[in-house]
Structure formats: structure tokens, C-alpha cells
Amino acid sequence: MSSSTETSRPVGATAQGEGEIACYVYGIVPEDVNISPYAVGVGDPPGQVRLIRHGEIGALVSDVVVDRPLGRAEDLVGHEALLDGAAAEVPVLPLRFGAVLTSPEAVVGELLEPHHDEFAAALKEIEGHVQYVIRATYGERSVLHEILADNAEARRLRDQIRGRPEDATRGERIRIGELITQAIAAKREADTQTVVDCFATCTVAAVIRDATHERDAANVAFMVRSDQKSDFEMVLGELRREWADRIDVRVLGPMAVYDFVASA
Amino acid sequence: MTVTVPSGGGGGLPDRPSGSGLADVIDTILDKGLVIDAFVRVSLVGIEVLTIDARVVVASVDTYLRFAEAVNRLDLEQSKEGLPELIGDVTQGVAHNKSKGVAQGVIEAAGEKLHDYIAGTVEEPEPERRVRRRSGG
Lengths: 264, 137
Fold this sequence. Notes:
The structure holds 2 protein chains of 2 kinds.
Chain A: E1 21-30, E2 33-35, E3 50-54, E4 57-65, H1 73-87, E5 93-94, E6 100-101, H2 104-112, H3 116-126, E7 129-138, H4 140-150, H5 152-161, H6 170-199, E8 205-208, E9 216-225, H7 229-242, E10 247-255
Antiparallel strand pairs in A: 1-4, 1-5, 1-6, 3-4, 7-9, 7-10, 8-9
Helix pairs in contact in A: 4-5, 5-6
Chain B: H1 22-29, H2 38-41, H3 61-73, H4 83-97, H5 102-119, E1 131-133
Helix pairs in contact in B: 4-5
GO molecular function (chain B): structural molecule activity
Subunit structure (chain B): The gas vesicle shell is 2 nm thick and consists of a single layer of this protein. It forms helical ribs nearly perpendicular to the long axis of the vesicle.
Subcellular location (chain B): Gas vesicle shell
């Protein structure tokens, strides 16, 4: 066992036996938070989460073994679950997945101390806010019916490929597929704007995310103040009713304000 | 022992984080959030972390052909849309964007797990108050 507490181990130096332990950082919180002993994060088994304090702020960290790659599904989910659980209770500045520093001393000396004032100010700013993501997806049948109804060229191509083998109609198939993709992109732009406008009065800020699925109708992150939640919920209900037959509307959250901290 | 009871009111916004699928998690935590700046990065340990671009290629010939087939089937049968397609997209997009190596193995493993998550065989993490204000007791 090599459990000497050197403060600055050289990068890449390996302890014998088990892999070297480093400090995985999840996010920044105010120093006056309590961490449940059941709070765990990334790793196998999941590392116990603790707080490293400095001044008014602290970093949520857990030990992580360096010689094993990170990024299993459980690691990704563990990272977000810890942060989202925290964000529901306290202000959190979430770090992007995969931030690892060599030691607790490095977390203080290289992360908390140099950025203390800006982190503390940012935490005050986001106090009482959480993030929700509106994820809207076109139903395949309904969106195809819409496009065929609106577009004569699409109907013509549909008639050409109908019931005929793929090999014989490849050109037509690619053309109709491209046309549908373009039509969906146009719809997406309009429907994304609708989402942004609908929620404008009951949210603090919005970030439009890139589409990640071909039938995405809207993918928008909102920063929501606690006193806006009931209005947000009401607008969500209205939107779902309005889009019931066309678009499936999911809401993710409450989560940490991932989409609103990157610019720092 | 603490038992967390899900709040049963309304049925609108969840009070606690709702367990989101792995695809949603990937969208959220891989390219968003604070990044430790370049200066600090120097002292990051050499741990291999996936930095995949999990973006699905939104416009490709495969997509076009799939839409065409969906149109072809439109009046003939109930189209089977849904998650298996999404899984394919995510894992495929990953494989395209990542050269061989540990990271890819990791991603493939994540892809397999994605099936498990969607099939409901892996339990979603139980939301619980694990980090809270000291004064809030």
C-alpha cells in the first residue's frame, strides 16, 4: 500500500498495485452544503462524493482510479444524476463530464482558489434557478402525412416508389427522403421558435440546442426561477394539448444549468 | 433510514429530477457545462475520457432511404417507429466519429448499456436528496 500523502504527485506516476487515485470534479457549490453519505458518482463501484471547501465555495468530487477509462453508461448517468440531484436543492455550477485533477490540493490550488470570486458570484446569480429541457419530436406518420399534404412533388415521388423495389427506385427514394428532411428542417425552425416564444414569459433564458434526431421538432434548454415553475407547467400543458396529434413533448429536469454556464 | 416518496401532486413538472435516458444524458453532459480552462488542464491526469460527438447525422442517404420506405409503408401498415432506430443512430454515429482505441470500446459498451436502459433492465438511479444546504436541515 502506498498511502503517503504527497501533495504534488507528478502526472502519470503510478502507485504500485492498484491504479493511482485522482479527483473527479462534478461541479461547484456554495461551501455550506451537506453531502449525504449515500451520494455517489462515477466509477466502478461508484465513488462516494465529498466536498472540498475553499472560502465561500466548494467542489463536489469523488476519488477515481486513473488507470481505468471513464465513460461507461453508468459513469455518464452517475455524473448527471449527482449534479441534477444537487441542483434541485442548492445552486450548482456543473462541470462538463470528465474533469479530473490530480489531487484534492490541485482542486483547491488550481480550480477553487484562482476562480473563487467568479464562481461565488455565479452561484449567487443562479441561486433559485434550475434548468428544464423541452424535447419535442414529430410523430413519424403525422409529419409524413403533413409533408405529403403540403408538397405536390413529394406526392409525385411517393406514387413513383409505391410498391416498387428499392433497387429500381433508388434515385426517387433519395429525392423524396431529401425533400422530407428539408421539409422537417423548415418545420423544426418554426416549431422551435414557437417553443422559445411560448415559454419566454415564464423563463429567465433560453438556449436552442442542436437537433440530435432526424425527427426533432424542438430541443430547447430553459433557465427557470423557482417562482416561475407553475407558469412553466401551465404553458407546457397548453403546448402538449395543442400539439397532441403531431408532436410528442417531453420535459427533462429539473437539472443543473448545463446550458447556461459555458460562456464563462 | 430515509425513504424518498415521489411528490404526488399535479402530474406536470417533476419536483425531483426525472430519470432521463442515456441518450438525453449524452446530449446534456458531454458538450455542456463548465470546462476547466487550459491552464488547469495541464495538470489533469492522463485519464482516458471519451470525447465523442454523439450527434446523429441528421441528413444522410440512410436517413433519406429510411424516410422513403416510411412513406412507402405509410398507408399499408402501422409504421413501427421508436427507440431501436434511435439506438442504431447513436451507436453508429459514435463509431463513425471515433477512431479505434479504448474510447471506442467504452462507447460500444455504453451503446450496449443503452439497450439495457431502454429495455428497462438497468435501474434508473433513485432520485434522492443527496446534496442539500446545511441550514436547510
